[in-house]
Each structure stands twice: as C-alpha cells, then as structure tokens.
Design a protein that fits this description.
The chain is built from 8 helices and 7 strands, in the order ααααβαβαββαβαββ. With 206 residues, it is an alpha/beta fold. It has a 7-stranded mixed β-sheet, sandwiched between helices. α7 crosses α8. The chain is globular, with a radius of gyration of 16 Å. The mean pLDDT is 95.
C-alpha cells in the first residue's frame, strides 16, 4: 500500500527519483524520531504520501513563482521540509523552518543537514522574526484568528499567506474576521476533499 501511494504521488506531482529518495529518507528519519518524541500521530505515518507529503506539496501549485517560504510552527517539517525537497536546486530557493520547541528544531536540523536542503532552522517565536519572504505558511499550528497574529509580520512585509486547514476552515475564517480585516480564498485540498487551502492577503487588525 505504501509503495502504491508513493507511485501515485510521483505521478500526480511529477517528482523526480531524487526527490522521491529524499522524501523516503524523511519518512525513515521521521519514523525513528517519532518513536521517542511526538512529532506526528503514529497512525498517520501509514498515510505519509497523501496525508503529509501530497498535502504539503500541493502548496507549490498556489505560488509557482515563489522561491522563499517561511513555515511557522514547522514541527515535523510539514509543509516546510517537503517544499524544500521539491525546490532543492531551484535558484534562490530557501525555506525558513521556525519552531519554538528545541527538540523539534534539532530534528529539523538533522534532516536539513542529512539531505542538504536549502533551509534555515530557527528556534524561536514565529511572530518575532524579521524575515521577508514570498510565502508564509503553516499547518495545524493554531486557529485562524491566532494564526493570523503569528503571520501578520510576514504578510505586512508582502508575503502571501497559504495555510493548510481542515474541514472547519470556513468557521475559523468567520471567527477571524471579528478581529482582522483581510481577503481570503479557499481551495479544496488535493490530499483530502474535506481539507482547505486558505490564501490570505491584505491583512489588517480591526
């Protein structure tokens, strides 16, 4: 089943053999690390190629010319590590992986070093960084109203917001609009029709 899922991912995304090898190494390293720290739900590793990899990779379709990304609350590296693997070798590409927990940052740095990825791992608070990037992203970090607070500095400096959300995305947006003024578009996730990709721009506090 896992092999079938990998092949299906390769056909859908057009991943190269080198990219597939890096993504397999990420799975192997994640499986080892997850045994001693809770990076992802153990059951979700069986759906790695769809639930984690395709879910992350689809963001590139929404910002095809973007080369610099900031992944807030990078955790296990989704979507940031997957994006970096798929952009490795692209001129000027770089992903900043930002997380407030030291052990997660150590895991991220190990993978970055192992695979030679165009990444910088930052141990710190997402909203405290002074980065200028093309896209700011996050997955499973916080409800939309809080997430926009974390992402505001990046959006103010010109970034596009692309956030992976679940089936409650519309409800979260309604709550967020009470505190924030912004424009948002929702797209159906390619990895799960219940999921949504939320594109945010023109953010201002009310």
């Amino acid at each position: 089943m896992a092999i079938d899922a990998k092949v299906a991912f390769q056909h859908e995304i057009g991943a190269t053999p080198e990219q597939l090898a890096d993504l397999q190494t990420l799975l192997d390293r994640l499986t080892e690390a997850n045994a001693v720290m809770n990076l992802v739900g153990p059951d979700s590793l069986g759906e790695y190629w769809t639930r984690h990899v395709l879910d992350s990779a689809q963001l590139l379709d929404h910002a095809p010319r973007a080369v610099t990304w900031a992944d807030l609350g990078a955790g296990a590296g989704f979507p940031g590590l997957v994006l970096a693997i798929l952009m490795k070798g692209r001129p000027d590409s770089h992903v900043w992986l930002i997380d407030s927990l030291g052990k997660r940052c150590r895991f991220l740095q190990e993978v970055v070093d192992l695979l030679g990825l165009p990444c910088t791992v930052i141990h710190g608070r997402a909203e405290a960084q002074k980065l200028r990037v093309d896209v700011v992203t996050a997955r499973a970090l916080a409800p939309m109203d809080k997430l926009l607070g974390y992402a505001q500095p990046y959006l103010t400096r010109g970034a596009q917001g692309l956030f992976l959300k679940g089936e409650k995305a519309e409800m979260e947006l309604q709550t967020a609009w009470a505190s924030w003024s912004f424009e948002a578009d929702l797209s159906i996730s390619r990895s799960d029709p219940r999921g949504r990709i939320v594109s945010v721009r023109s953010l201002h506090a009310r």
